[in-house]
Amino acid sequence: MISTKGRYALRVMLDLAQQNPDCFTPLDEIASRQGISKKYLEIILKALVQEKLLKGLRGKGGGYKLTRLPQEYTVGEILELTEGTLATVACLQMDSELCERADSCLTLPMWKQYDKMVHDFFYNITLKDLLSGKDADYLQK
Fold first, then answer.
1. Which domains does the chain have, with CATH numbers?
2. Per the CB 3.0–4.6 Å rule, which of 23, 82, 93, 97 could disulfide with 9?
3. What is the pLDDT of residues 9-46, one digit of tens each?
4. What predicted TM-score, i.e. pTM, was given to this entire model?
């Protein structure tokens, strides 16, 4: 399940993709438009800045802006940054110990295929795709 942190991160990234790319957008404006508390938004923005998905500037005239073009961000990278992993079962998480049943597990191939579908789906959708609307090409694939 995608948490509010992941969903809010996507909303913030989309919000900033709609702003003037040459200007910084103040935290207050983003929080107001998105209906997200400033305190929670600061946590999300800090993570996005640390991973260089956003650039932040403090002080007067400060705020946040994208570091790349909207078509260069995938939903997958944003969700994995904020959620950690999109793995559907514990044994497929990156940090998990090797399952003692992996060699004989009859469901493991199914979970691997499902994870691949989820990964490919989210990594093939960009911010630009989402901005194009509900009838975007990615829904037809």
1. 1-141 (1.10.10.10)
2. 82
3. 999 999 999 999 999 999 999 999 999 999 999 999 99
4. 0.86
